[in-house]
Amino acid sequence: MYFANNIKLLRKRRHRTQDDVAVALDMKRSTVSGYENGVAQPGIEALVMFSQYYQVAIDTLIKTDLSLLSESQLSQLERGLDVFIRGSQLRILTTSVNTDNQENIELVFEKAKAGYRTGFADPEYISVLPAFHLPFLSRERKYRSFQISGDSMLPIPDGAYVTGEFVQDWTSIRNRHAYIILTIDDGVVFKVAENRIEPDGMLVLHSLNPLYKAYSIHVNDIREVWKFVNFISPELPEPRPETETLMETVKNLKREIQAIQTKLNL
């Protein structure tokens, strides 16, 4: 049980003393000290109070060693993104850091995707991936970049590098937003998601290229989800198809006609 170390870690991260916590929870300081040192075991009522105070689920306080989490994971937890509260399991992400203990953005090249499929949770595999930093991305969140292949997500071109933010709570996946998803059967895929987890336990994955049909995947077949934040490519995105440009022109003409009719009616 990790309760003692966890409440001590959370208190120190908030720069609070045992007296501060004792006053907030209406306890004696010696009681808080006993819990933190592991010489006293909390009852249900005390567990609930600490859970509410730190906004962390009881299951997490007891079962998860928070000292093993990365800074981005701890930050998410402290912002109330505890997935135990949503009835799922905390996903511990394998990551790497630089000499300043700042999390890297690991890069998974196209040729490395096959290895990533089985090595995504292996610290040794992750540690040898190329790593870099983007100064405009938050240090409190975890990112990873993947090289994509094919034309299913045009206008994002073949060979582009897409960067994603780690998604711990899959129920937070937003419809019509793009995600990089590690699947059991297909490996790494880059798609626009439709969230059907609550009713069906599924994600429906769509391509930007209309030539590709949407398909469904069960959450049991998913290993990781990363929310798309940007892409890097040496190529310019392809121009919009002529039919799309023509449709936009027709829409503009309709607006102009409506404006003229409005003036004539005046």
Name some characteristics of this structure.
9 strands; 266 residues; 10 helices; globular
Write a structural description.
The structure is a single chain. The chain is of the alpha+beta class and 266 residues long. 35% of the residues lie in helices and 20% in strands. The chain has ten helices and nine strands. The chain has helices at residues 3-13, 18-25, 29-37, 44-54, 58-63, 71-78, 113-119, 123-127, 197-200, 242-265; strands at 105-108, 131-132, 143-147, 161-166, 177-183, 187-196, 202-206, 215-218, 222-232. A nine-stranded mixed sheet has the order 2-1-3-4-9-5-6-7-8. A hairpin with an 8-residue loop joins strand 7 (202-206) and strand 8 (215-218). Helix 2 (18-25) packs across helix 3. The mean pLDDT is 86.
Question: Nutshell version of this structure?
Answer:
By secondary structure, this protein is α+β, with helices and mostly antiparallel strands. Helices cover 35% and strands 20% of the residues. The protein is built from 10 helices and 9 strands.
